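Troubleshooting log. The previous structure file for this entry was overwritten by mistake, so regenerating from the original sequence record. Sequence copied from the archived sheet and checked twice against the printout by T.R.
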Amino acid sequence: MNTLSPNITARRKSSMLRRGWSGLEAVLDWLQAPALLAARLYVAYVFFASGLESLRSWDATLYLYESEFHVPVLPPHVAAVMGTAGEVLLPPLLLLGLFGRFGALGLFVVNAVALLSYLYALQPPAIMFHVIWGILLAVVALGGPGRWSVDHLRERAGRS
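Regenerated output below.
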């Protein structure tokens, strides 16, 4: 009887660990939707606010693209219009999760171009912000905007 007792105890512990892990996975699965929404909200706010500031100070924006930002291939005025348009038009898509992957990929490109065009002048903390935004955008682009999104609602309605 003593030889069976350790096996029974080990199985009970294993069963408790499996139940505990399953419970933790359920909580993490539930937290995925609000976490993705928070990431989308944060990045959308940052880029939209930047785009609005570019529109408010258009002369300064043009000056920056002519003298500071060195966007390869594009003339400064075209780069200013495209960058500002991306910062204003893509964040609402990302925030709502409406064509969320498209919005995330578009902002990922805007972020990458901004970082590469101005890298020589940025301090490490500013570079880190761009890296964080890029990671959050890549997560949404790769995994989708999550259950709390218009894309998810459209997908569910299509299945009905």
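The mean pLDDT is 93. Archived copy saved in two places this time.
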